[in-house]
Amino acid sequence: MLSMLPNWWRAATAVAVDVEFNSRGNGGNMKKKLVFSALLAFTSSVVVAGIASARSVAAVDGNPVVGAQSNCFNIDNSSGAVINTCASAEYIVPADVDTVGAKSIQFTSRATAAGALCRAVKNNRQGTAFAVSAVLPVPVAAVPVIQATGALPVATPSDVLMLDCSLNAGARLHSLFWTP
Amino acid sequence: MNRGIIGGTFALAVCAASALFWYSSQKPVQAPSSKSDEAAIRELRREVGELKEARATDLLVAAQLANVGRAPVPAPSSPPDPVREPSEAAQSPALSDAEQEQAAAKAEAGILSGLERAFASEGRDGRWSGTTANELSRSVREALPAGSNVSSVDCKSRICRLETTHENVEAFREFNTAAFARTGQTLWRGAVYSAVREQSGSSIVALTYLAKEGEVLPDTAN
After folding, report:
1. In a mutagenesis test of the B interface, which of A1, A2, A7, A104 is the best target, namely the one with the most B β-carbons within 10 Å?
2. Hey, what CATH class is B99-211 in?
3. Comparison of pLDDT for A34 and A2, the residue scoring more
4. What are the domain boundaries of chain B?
5. Which of B24, B51, B196 sits opposite A128 (nearest CB)?
6. Which residues contact B116 (CB under 8 A, 6 or more apart)?
7. How many CA atoms are closer than 13 Å to the CA of B93, on its beta-carbon side?
8. pTM: predicted TM-score of the whole model, two decimal places
C-alpha cells in the first residue's frame, strides 16, 4: 500500500520517521511520531487538493475603468497591489470562469478613509443578463482585509465575471480569490 | 462547499490525532527489547532507506527536466491537446456555438424563472415596499434612455421587481450602465439581476430583480 503513494508524500513521511529513529530509538515516541507524520501529510494533501480548484490573481492584473484614470494607480511591486492616488477612480479585475453556478469573489483590500467600495459584476457575452452583488465598503484598516462578495449566477462559462471597485485616495486593492 | 469539506476533514484529522496521542501516552514507554520489535525496526529502516533513494531520484529527475526545459522538442505528428491545469474539471464534448447559446439561454431563463418564483412567494412588508417602490420608480425613470419605459415596479419584503421595455438590446445595456454599472454611482446598493425576458423585432422586455441591502438574491444558478 505504501508503494501506491506518491514519492514526495512517502519521502515527507519518511523524513519524520527517520529523524525519530536516529534521535531516540524509543518505541512509544516513535509510534506517536509515525501517527502524527501520517496525519500531517494526509491533512496537507487534502488542503492542497481543495485549494487547487480555486484561482487567485494580484490586483495588478486588472485595469482602470476610465482610460483617463490610468495614471491614478500606483503599483506595489512587492505585493501586486494597486493604490489609488486620485480623489476617486474605478478599477476592475477580471475573474475568468470555467464552470457554471453561483460565483463569489474574495478580495483583499484596505483604505485610509471610508468611501471606497467593491462588488462583483457579471454579464453574458451579449450583455443581456447583467448581475451585480451588493456593494461592500473597503475597510479602513492598517492591514489588508479579506472580504467575499455576494454570489452571482453564472449561466455559462462564457459569462464575464469581475471585481469592480470604486477606490478613494489611498485605497488599495491587493488580490482576488475565486473558484472559476 | 469546498471550504466546508476541507474544514470538516481537518477537524476530523485533528480529533483523530488527539485521540491517538492520548492512547499512545497511556502506555508505558518501553525500549524495544524483543526480537520481533528489532526485526520490525530493521524493516522500517530498510523502507526509510528506499524512500530516501526514491526522493533523491525524484529530485534528480526534476533537476534534469529543469535543465532541458528549453531544449528543442521534436514536432508532434498531430497537434497536441491544449494545456489544461490539473484543477480544471473534465469538460463535456465540444458543443457548437449555436448549442452553447441555446444552453446559455435556457440557463438564463431558468435563473429568471427562479427569481420570479422567489418573488411571487415572498410576503409583503407594507412600509418598506411602498416607499422603496416609489423611490425606485423615480430613480429608474431618470436612468432610462429615450424610447425606454417602466412597465411596473413592485417591492415586497426583501426583493423588488422591475419590468422595463426598450427599443433594442443596446437601449437595455444603456439602461443597465446608467442605473447599476458604475459602482460609485449605482442607484441600488444591494444585489441586482437584470436580464432580457422577451425579444421581438420592435422591442424587448427586461426584468430586473433587486435585493434589499443586506439581503441576497435567491441562488437560482444551479
Report:
1. A7
2. alpha beta
3. A34
4. 99-211
5. B196
6. B161, B207
7. 0
8. 0.64
